[in-house]
Amino acid sequence: RFFFFFSYLVNIVILREFTFDRQTDRQTDRPRIGWLDTARAFAIVAVLLVHATENLYIMDPAHLNVMSWYSKLFAITGFTVGRLGVPLFLFLTGYLLLDRVYDVGKIQRFWKRNWLGILVTTEIWIVLYDVFLRLFHFQHWSTKELIRDMLFMDQVHMGHMWYMLMIIGVYLCIPFVARALRNIDLKTIIFPLLILSFYAFGIPIIKSWGNAFSHFGDIRSLLDLGFSGGIYGIYIVLGLCVKRGLLHKLGTGILFAGMIVSLLLTIGLQWFSYGHGVAYNVWYDNGLLLLCTLCLFGLFSRISATRIHGICLWLSLNSFGIYLVHFPFIMLLRKVLIPLSVPMPGKVILLWVSVLIISCVICKIINLSPRLGRLLLYSR
After folding, report:
1. DSSP state at residue 223
2. Hey, is 368 helix, strand or coil?
3. Are the C-beta atoms of residues 377 and 367 closer than 8 Å to each other?
4. pLDDT, tens digit, for every residue of 205-220?
5. Band of pLDDT at residue 285, cut at 50, 70 and 90
6. What rounded mean pLDDT belongs to the chain?
């Protein structure tokens, strides 16, 4: 009944909004690029999937290894597919922001409109999250801890907020990176990216494999990747490289095969680790995950439809708001779902769909006031 109630809300509230035809960008009046909106819509749905999975399954060998093979496979697969969301967002950032021309005036406008807007929205949600955690007894209220959270000196007790803090740091330097790469051709960019990517994304694969065999010893990279922006900076620069033709010579079949093979290898690597008693929940420093998402991003770019499907467009325009809204409901609904006598995959799907629907409804309501939407959801 819970699920059908929220499905009903979708029919009466959301679907009417999905019927609009906003084929131009609200900021520039330029035609929207449909496949970018499709990729962004997929990304936010994937993020909700990984959060639903990891908040119901306990992702460690002691719990996964005693489950049925299909439930374990569902957990690892859902977790892995969900992990594709953040890399897609980072590719989109590089694709859209690193190919712009930034003079002094545009840098200042970027900071004022984009960076300051995200900062203000993040600070508001830090306060809202702290109030939520106090009201629903997830933690005790502490003004001192709240101040530390707002100054980014402590981790907000919400599993998704690391992304907001990362983006705030990245956005400060986006104009400088764009200017530095403006007149650098693709071949020149690829050379350092290959070296940096081996240490940033290759070593973690070797390490995760080696951890299953204790005699391998500790495997780690000592190369300093800080100046490159680390793994997230590399994702963003790769988004620019895709725009400049990185994948143009690869056929759609090759991209699809690359995506499937790298996805299966990523799932297999985690399965192998759990089977050897080692917890390995794939993170964004895994080269196989990078390759899978890069191929997927390339496949999205092959979408030839000239018009954007209403649902994808709406999810794309509201992806930031959905990201901010959804996590408290993950925390609340998981308490309701855990005791149910429903197979674990069913619980995950129910949590995933329910939170998506609730988040969409709340974003729709908040956006009834454009000013409130800009402030709370960073709507543009």
Report:
1. S
2. coil
3. yes
4. 888 877 766 656 567 7
5. very high
6. 88
Determine the residue type at 266: T
Position 12 pLDDT exceeds 80: no
Conformational region of residue 137, where left means phi above 0, alpha means psi within -120 to 50, and beta covers everything else = left
Instruction: Give yes or no for a contact between 287 and 204, defined as CB atoms under 8 angstroms apart.
Output: yes
Distance CA 190, CA 196 (A): 10
Which range of 24-38, 76-90, 127-141, 305-319 scores highest in mean pLDDT? It is 76-90
Q: Quote helix, strand, coil % in the chain, to nearest 5.
A: 70, 0, 30
Q: Is 271 exposed, middle or buried (0-12, 13-18, 19+ CB in 10 A)?
A: middle
Q: Which of 297, 377, 315 is nearest to 41 (CA)?
A: 315
For residue 80 the two structure tokens come to 């892995």
Tell me the sheet residues that pair with 31. Answer: 24
| Dist CA 323 CA 352 (whole Å) | 13
User: Where exactly are the structural domains of the chain?
Assistant: 2-15+33-101+182-377
Q: Are the C-beta atoms of 58 and 348 separated by less than 8 Å?
A: no
Q: Are 275 and 223 in contact (CB under 8 A)?
A: no
Q: What is the DSSP letter of 257?
A: H
User: 365 pLDDT band (50/70/90 cuts)?
Assistant: very high
Token pair 């190369």: residue: 223
Dihedrals phi, psi of 25, to nearest 5 degrees: -70, 130
Helix axes 252-275, 203-211, angle to 10 degrees: 30
